[in-house]
Amino acid sequence: MSLIYCNDLTFKYDGHIALQNATFHVNEGDYLGIVGENGSGKSTLIKGILNLKAPSSGTISFGEGLSLNDVGYLPQQTAAQKDFPASVYEVVLSGKQNKKRFIPIYNSHDREEVDNNLKLLGISNLKHSCYRELSGGQQQRVLLARALCAAKKMILLDEPVSGLDPKITNEMYNLIQKLNKEEGITIIMVSHDVKSIVKYSTHILHLSGHGHFFGTTNEYKKSRLGFEFLGGEADV
pTM of the full predicted structure? Predict the structure, then answer.
């Protein structure tokens, strides 16, 4: 059964269509890469899944056993967010807030989960560091740990390697793949880095004004859109 099923989604901003007639599903354990031209509606779709933007038409359904509060989210950072004056531990612990209905009171289990996620992502040594004093790659690991604290089965990532150097980018992709393959976390990732998405994902959703593609990564590499976006390197 699908964790998320999106049927014939259309989104509009001020009467202008941002995304039209997108249909796809995400099963448990999938690694879905969302790609497409600038302005094709990738980030709008993520906002729709997170219930931050209502579709003009179509439906978004969550499968049994998954609610919005069980979905972790790693957004694109603004300059102000990068300068956030809190400790790494406080930032990661704040990922538990969406499971607190009223005043966020954290218990020993919450704190243990923070420590486990810091260890999983190799940043236990940064626990007491100030977030804004970290490098870009370290900040992304912290935000990924925060998303894990919110996640039960799924994480949504919006351009998680934007602005990172090639070495750190590769490390982030490997970490995300580890979460998917070893920890069983379902991944939905928006990225402009099509070649890397094809390398790591199991499925591709390509948004295009000339018709969308949804299918397995192998099917995508054999498709017209895959061939065009991969610069002629797809298997056709």
Answer: 0.90
